[in-house]
């Protein structure tokens, strides 16, 4: 029997609802394949502010550092929206990513055959399917550059600095090229090198890294064009590598390729051995507590955890197969519902996936 320690951070809003189902799925996988997943719960985000007065208590970082992987739901919500920037719940996410050195955020936007009718793109654009992997830089750029406020003649001004060092770009570019090698061998670098100096450095380093990957084709695209091309002709993309903020925005856009943001999982990897796994969506305050959230993005994130952090390939496959089986059987949460399909809530969707596993 293999033992794995997982730090579990449900967070706020729908976070606890989707994490609850994911833990049940992992427990079932453990039962079937004879692994022991030990969950240690930790608070981060708004719930940590309420309990401890800070979004990311040291205890939470310690629990994560002592684990083999981190499973996170979502963080934030209107209750904490009026707090100053450095005390907001979202700080916890940035702090965790930094503390664990998670510079590479992998966001695979895959349209399952079963969900073609849930995707808003036309059938001729979808063709035989869509599969894009967004590789987002996660611990640098404008999220972490100098920020502040100052008085000017035009009133108060505020600034956030976009800054990247060569090494920060090099390592994320390598991640993207390594992933592309295992896929269709095309990397599209997305930047704004026609305007931003940080993008010019970014692009030159990506080009330098590309010379080590002669088997991989490198294309460059400005972010404004890329956001249009993602909808116009998504098939041209294989791996997209981009900065922290561009990646945040483009991945929400790409989530519609999967049918819904409730379907898009992510893995955050980096310097150390601890990976963090979370859905791309947020705490969805509009549906929190209503048993309406789609738990699949989080459940698919757990599959990524099994694959990347634990090397449990067949167990990860089993989760993905179970998700597809439930979709095949016509069950849908409300975000992916279509005529003729059976509407279910968060808990029922979790139960069906567990049933499909066994
Ligand atoms: N990783 C994270 O923890 C994370 C990510 C994004 C946003 N946030 C935070 O979440 C809060 C809400 O942000 P937002 O409203 O901009 O984005 P959101 O992703 O929470 O919600 C956007 C829309 O998508 C829907 N949605 C999201 N997840 C869904 C799911 N699993 N199933 C069905 N529908 C789903 C919501 O109902 C909403 O209509 C904010 O405080 C934001 O900062 C956190
Ligand atoms: C909540 C926020 C800090 C976060 C980000 O911008 O990275 C979220 O939007 C995400 O995509 O994980
Ligand atoms: Mg986001």
Automatic annotation (TrEMBL):
<dbReference type="GO" id="GO:0003862">
    <property type="term" value="F:3-isopropylmalate dehydrogenase activity"/>
</dbReference>
<comment type="similarity">
    <text>Belongs to the isocitrate and isopropylmalate dehydrogenases family. LeuB type 1 subfamily.</text>
</comment>
<feature type="binding site">
    <location>
        <position position="97"/>
    </location>
    <ligand>
        <name>substrate</name>
    </ligand>
</feature>
<feature type="site" description="Important for catalysis">
    <location>
        <position position="192"/>
    </location>
</feature>
<dbReference type="InterPro" id="IPR004429">
    <property type="entry name" value="Isopropylmalate_DH"/>
</dbReference>
<keyword id="KW-0963">Cytoplasm</keyword>
<keyword id="KW-0028">Amino-acid biosynthesis</keyword>
<comment type="subunit">
    <text>Homodimer.</text>
</comment>
<feature type="binding site">
    <location>
        <position position="248"/>
    </location>
    <ligand>
        <name>Mg(2+)</name>
    </ligand>
</feature>
<feature type="binding site">
    <location>
        <begin position="77"/>
        <end position="90"/>
    </location>
    <ligand>
        <name>NAD(+)</name>
    </ligand>
</feature>
<feature type="domain" description="Isopropylmalate dehydrogenase-like">
    <location>
        <begin position="5"/>
        <end position="353"/>
    </location>
</feature>
<keyword id="KW-0100">Branched-chain amino acid biosynthesis</keyword>
<comment type="pathway">
    <text>Amino-acid biosynthesis; L-leucine biosynthesis; L-leucine from 3-methyl-2-oxobutanoate: step 3/4.</text>
</comment>
<keyword id="KW-0464">Manganese</keyword>
<dbReference type="GO" id="GO:0051287">
    <property type="term" value="F:NAD binding"/>
</dbReference>
<protein>
    <recommendedName>
        <fullName>3-isopropylmalate dehydrogenase</fullName>
        <ecNumber>1.1.1.85</ecNumber>
    </recommendedName>
</protein>
<keyword id="KW-0432">Leucine biosynthesis</keyword>
<dbReference type="Pfam" id="PF00180">
    <property type="entry name" value="Iso_dh"/>
</dbReference>
<dbReference type="InterPro" id="IPR024084">
    <property type="entry name" value="IsoPropMal-DH-like_dom"/>
</dbReference>
<feature type="binding site">
    <location>
        <position position="107"/>
    </location>
    <ligand>
        <name>substrate</name>
    </ligand>
</feature>
<feature type="site" description="Important for catalysis">
    <location>
        <position position="143"/>
    </location>
</feature>
<feature type="binding site">
    <location>
        <position position="224"/>
    </location>
    <ligand>
        <name>Mg(2+)</name>
    </ligand>
</feature>
<feature type="binding site">
    <location>
        <position position="252"/>
    </location>
    <ligand>
        <name>Mg(2+)</name>
    </ligand>
</feature>
<dbReference type="GO" id="GO:0009098">
    <property type="term" value="P:L-leucine biosynthetic process"/>
</dbReference>
<dbReference type="InterPro" id="IPR019818">
    <property type="entry name" value="IsoCit/isopropylmalate_DH_CS"/>
</dbReference>
<dbReference type="GO" id="GO:0000287">
    <property type="term" value="F:magnesium ion binding"/>
</dbReference>
<keyword id="KW-0460">Magnesium</keyword>
<feature type="binding site">
    <location>
        <position position="224"/>
    </location>
    <ligand>
        <name>substrate</name>
    </ligand>
</feature>
<feature type="binding site">
    <location>
        <begin position="282"/>
        <end position="294"/>
    </location>
    <ligand>
        <name>NAD(+)</name>
    </ligand>
</feature>
<dbReference type="GO" id="GO:0005829">
    <property type="term" value="C:cytosol"/>
</dbReference>
<keyword id="KW-0520">NAD</keyword>
<feature type="binding site">
    <location>
        <position position="136"/>
    </location>
    <ligand>
        <name>substrate</name>
    </ligand>
</feature>
<comment type="function">
    <text>Catalyzes the oxidation of 3-carboxy-2-hydroxy-4-methylpentanoate (3-isopropylmalate) to 3-carboxy-4-methyl-2-oxopentanoate. The product decarboxylates to 4-methyl-2 oxopentanoate.</text>
</comment>
<keyword id="KW-0560">Oxidoreductase</keyword>
<keyword id="KW-0479">Metal-binding</keyword>
